[in-house]
């Protein structure tokens, strides 16, 4: 009820501001009795808020459909929207739906072929298998520009939790007999802590964990990951599934037969 | 307030149903005094509704990110969600944001190059330039399976309205000097009515309108549209932008430098 009360207050304030605004264009009308609250010039009206919410919902969907690029930080007006999304049930629901679609696809492949020895599934790590939400909670959920040093310090703690729906998918894909290749933008310097973090969170028995070598540091993620996928193909593997939270995990060349884009409105990697 | 009243009724009914359900597993407990309303067995609880809403929102975003495929009709539980979306402000907001991103990209290209003679932008027609919402309003907004004959009768009326944000983008892209190629899955038999419909809605001066020939009828849209884009490239055109509501408008080969996926939760074309 408290929320409805403050909404009502916002609506009333909106009406007051609208009257005040209209007056600018109609000086002949008597000045209405408007109590000017201290913050009324910067206060947003309920209509403004609703419009911003619609724009931010549109922005988030457009990011997921790869319509917005490049972007360096969450738009300021969408900071609260993104925070609510990633800390609320919608993010979890979105992650779960993508995992279910990937699982159904993996099972359909397993049902139609007997020999899985060459079949591979690629998983990204950050925001795909492991979640860095605890880090982003301290950094505005993507509102702040990305700080490599700060993030590296977080990675070195090895405390990123598993994304539960991804852990379930990972285990299922392994149990179905797919080779599992973990392909991450993390640098080779983080190998030890990444292995420990993954194992502590229940990820085991991957076939390969590929980290970014010094020579790959200046490449875009799209180029680096495409090269690595091409190497897998050259070794005879068929990449049938690819799960990642960035389009740069999925696009480029040597693309997977099917790609699964996990939601991520907090950052963009080219 | 009436909505809050019925919400309260739904919550109360939910509690009653939960109690009734629990009783099945605990026969030793005394039967609670539950007034059985006539519709109580089919009535959904508020929690059920909220969960279905979350699932449908996730489904819609997953469709936009190309995570769900193929699908033949909107999931039954999402019929109301999709109807509300396409008839409400969110669909318009999503369309407008994608058009703004496309426009910014087109202007950035125009600013960085002087000769635009070979630069091309591809537009799909249905649910991209023209809207078939009046047709889908009569057919459950995608809940019904697609009926070719019915849809053809609608197309022959030539009354599909323009999508306003797409009309604005179309004009801007033309004004910036791009060649505009309209590439549609409509068959050549609909050429006359399609030209009339487009012109009546304000679309003029396209460089080419490509419809599906008899020989293309059995091809997927992805294959048909890729072939046509390849022909454009063979003629020397550089496809820099591509706007479509289906991933099959955008993926395949001879892909555009950038693609813009307009929202469409009503149908899927492979």
Defining key terms:
five-stranded parallel sheet, 2 domains, disordered N terminus, 270 residues, Rossmann fold, 11% strand, alpha/beta, globular, 9 helices, homodimer
Question: Would you give an account of this structure?
Answer:
2 copies of one chain form a homodimer. With 270 residues, chain A is α/β, with parallel strands linked by helices. Chain A has 2 domains: 2-43, no CATH class; 76-261, HAD superfamily/HAD-like (Rossmann fold, 3-Layer(aba) Sandwich), CATH 3.40.50.1000. In chain A, 47% of the residues lie in helices and 11% in strands. Chain A has a 5-stranded parallel beta sheet, sandwiched between helices. In chain A, strand 2 (179-187), helix 8 (191-200) and strand 3 (208-212) form a beta-alpha-beta unit. In chain A, helix 4 packs parallel to helix 7.
User: First CA to last CA of chain A: what distance?
Assistant: 44 Å
Number of domains of chain A: 2
Summing up helix and strand content along with how strands pair, one would put the structural category of chain A as: alpha/beta
* Full CATH superfamily name of the largest domain in chain A: HAD superfamily/HAD-like
Strand content of chain A: 5-15%
Number of strands of chain A: 5
Q: What is the element string of chain A, with H for helices and E for strands? A: HHHHEHHHEHEHEE
Q: Assign an overall shape of chain A.
A: globular
List the total number of helices of chain A: 9
Q: Which regions of chain A have little confidence, pLDDT < 50, spanning 5+ residues?
A: 1-38
CATH top-level class of the largest domain in chain A: Alpha Beta
Q: Please give the CATH architecture of the largest domain in chain A.
A: 3-Layer(aba) Sandwich
Q: Which chains share the greatest interface?
A: A-B, 25 and 25 residues
Look up the CATH topology of the largest domain in chain A.
Answer: Rossmann fold
Oligomer: homodimer
* Widest sheet: strand ordering of chain A: 3-2-1-4-5
Compute the gyration radius of chain A: what is it?
24 Å
Largest sheet of chain A: 5 strands, parallel
Organism (chains A, B): Brachypodium distachyon
Signal peptide (chains A, B): 1-22
Protein name (chains A, B): Acid phosphatase
Family (chains A, B): Belongs to the APS1/VSP family.
